[in-house]
Specification:
ATP binding, alpha+beta, Phosphorylase Kinase, domain 1, 217 residues, transferase, single chain, six-stranded antiparallel sheet
């Protein structure tokens, strides 16, 4: 998915598979995320594409998990398509980022944190009831939609638990929000998501995470 052309005489907005591709809103090892608009409508979406073989496998797993999710506090998967160069996932677009609010305001009032907590607990309850672990709960993966709606996103590390799978052992997540069993490389379950949520809420209330580390050792 190419970025919009900006040269003289070029179209200001590129179009791919029925979507106008607008500005790039995120970039990392996984690929890039663009803000877009569905053709012939005012619906704004997010388009996430990747080209590397490794990240392509991860994105396909993420798509498989997200296509089965339907909850008001989880970013909805709207569409997927393939171009000659990459696979693209189309999700609903949420205009605000919890991380940006935290960086600007340092800490949030208790009533706002309470509202965020209730919505994230609801999202996690839904995921865990469907045997899905998010495994990367952090402010960067929490978006804010209209009217204060909280949206959990980025299911790149998510894992669907099978009938015979009670615990996981692979180390996934961000050290600041990882549970003790993850840090100690021990088996873990859905409680790892709840630990991360507690760390996030602590940070929202105080302005600093409860622990300070970028390493798991």
């Amino acid at each position: 998915m190419s970025s919009p052309s900006a040269g003289p005489g070029a179209a200001s907005v590129a179009t791919v598979n029925g979507y106008h591709v607008m500005d790039c809103i995120g970039e990392g090892s996984f690929g890039r995320v663009f803000r877009g608009r569905k053709k012939f409508s005012s619906e704004v979406v997010a388009l996430k594409g990747t080209k590397s073989a490794r990240e392509l496998r991860n994105l396909k797993k993420e798509i498989d998990i997200m296509q089965g999710l339907k909850h008001q506090n989880i970013v909805r998967m709207l569409d997927t398509f393939e171009t000659e160069k990459e696979v693209v996932a189309v999700t609903e677009y949420a205009h605000g980022e919890l991380l940006q609010i935290l960086e600007d305001d340092m800490q949030l009032p208790e009533e706002i944190v309470r509202s965020i907590a209730c919505q994230l607990v609801s999202a996690l309850y839904y995921l865990h009831a469907h045997s899905i672990l998010h495994r990367d709960m952090k402010p960067q993966n929490i978006l804010l939609g209209n009217n204060g709606a909280v949206k959990l996103c980025d299911f790149g590390f998510a894992r669907s638990m099978g009938i015979n799978t009670m615990v996981l052992t692979s180390i996934k997540g961000t050290p600041l929000y990882m549970s003790p069993e993850l840090m100690e490389e021990k088996p873990y379950d859905h409680s790892a998501d709840l630990w991360a949520l507690g760390c996030i809420l602590y940070e929202l209330l105080t302005g600093s995470p409860p622990f300070s580390t970028n390493n798991i050792i």
